[in-house]
Amino acid sequence: xxxxxxxxxxxxxxxxxxxxxxxxxxxxxxxxxxxxxxxxxxxxxxxxxxxxxxxxxxxxxxxxxxxxxxxxxxxxxxxxxxxxxxxxxxxxxxxxxxxxxxxxxxxxxxxxxxxxxxxxxxxxxxxxxxxxxxxxxxxxxxxxxxxxxxxxxxxxxxxxxxxxxxxxxxxxxxxxxxxxxxxxxxxxxxxxxxxxxxxxxxxxxxxxxxxx
Length: 212
Description:
Layout: E1 2-10, E2 13-14, E3 26-39, E4 42-46, E5 51-57, E6 60-74, E7 80-85, E8 88-92, E9 98-106, E10 109-116, E11 119-123, E12 126-130, E13 135-139, E14 142-145, E15 163-166, E16 171-172, E17 185-189, H1 200-205
Parallel strand pairs: 6-7
Antiparallel strand pairs: 1-2, 1-3, 3-4, 3-5, 4-6, 5-6, 6-9, 7-8, 8-11, 9-10, 10-13, 11-12, 13-17, 14-15, 15-16
């Protein structure tokens, strides 16, 4: 359910507080927009100029960020949570409370911040754990291009819904193996966490991790 919306859209139409989101639907925000969403015990936020699709799991949700920024919060209940951004996958480590932010800076640059808890980030064959209060810049092996349909990243045909372009060089058509060339890189960014908690981040970060 949408908790707050300003200059926000559900598909091509404007969306308002109280609207119900169904599996696979896309939410987006315009310039100066803001959207807050609750799926079970999971909270998500989209600041301005952002877009994401949300897909259900048995006990949680997987969010696919297409552009901009996604903030997220999970209470200490172990709900299943995953964020996918340009073929980079981010999942909480363990079942505890977690809070963070993912930004697509460019197709080949994903910024991931943990405000609470630890996050496991997977790109290609590489995996890195981001500790609490850390921000990393991730350069994936490949980026997603030519998206034909928004289907769940859990779907066996997920990679057939788009093509892949290597961040170094190369191109892989729909259904081709992602991550078969190039090399992911994880770069720790110093002094960036304090600036993350702005806009939607403030809304999530100022609440107690134990508050339902």
